[in-house]
Amino acid sequence: MANEPKNNESAGELLADWRSATRDTAAAHAAATVTQLALAAAAAAEEAANEVEAAAAFSLQAVERARAAALRAREAAMQATESAKVALATAEGDKVRAAADVTVAEAAETVARDRYHDAESRGFPKE
To answer: What is the secondary structure of 24-85 as a DSSP string?
Structure first.
């Protein structure tokens, strides 16, 4: 032991040693408490870091899924655009054919009207 009793120490020296040892003991207890708190803080920090890492992994996975969904949506939109172009072209062709059909029908109506009026003017044929 470092503080072995000496036979010729005075009461003051012994009291000073005792007070010094008490302060050292108090300091050691305080250091032990600080160490315990530091250990708890380190454990909490490690747990928080693990949570952050897990959250980051989930976020990355969510971003990757969102990106994949966006790509699929883009592809679907492109296909819809192509379908709309085909439908428009078909509708334009239908419009042209319908206009031609109207012209033919109007011509047939004119011919039929003219034939009717011609027959009417001749008194209609008698059978």
So the answer is: HHHHHHHHHHHHHHHHHHHHHHHHHHHHHHHHHHHHHHHHHHHHHHHHHHHHHHHHHHHHHH
Whose structure tokens read 């005792």? 18
**For residues 17 and 3, is the Cβ–Cβ distance under 8 A?**
yes
pLDDT at position 117 is 92
Q: Count CB-CB contacts under 10 A for residue 83.
A: 10
52-54-57 Cα angle (round to 5): 110
Rounded Cα–Cα distance for residues 79 and 102 (Å): 34
Tell me: pLDDT of 3 over 60.
Answer: no
Tokens representing 44?
């909490």
Query: Could you tell me the pLDDT band of residue 72, with boundaries at 50, 70 and 90?
Result: very high
Q: Is the pLDDT of residue 54 over 90?
A: yes
- pTM summary value: 0.49
Upper half-sphere CA count for residue 78 (Cβ side, 13 Å) = 6
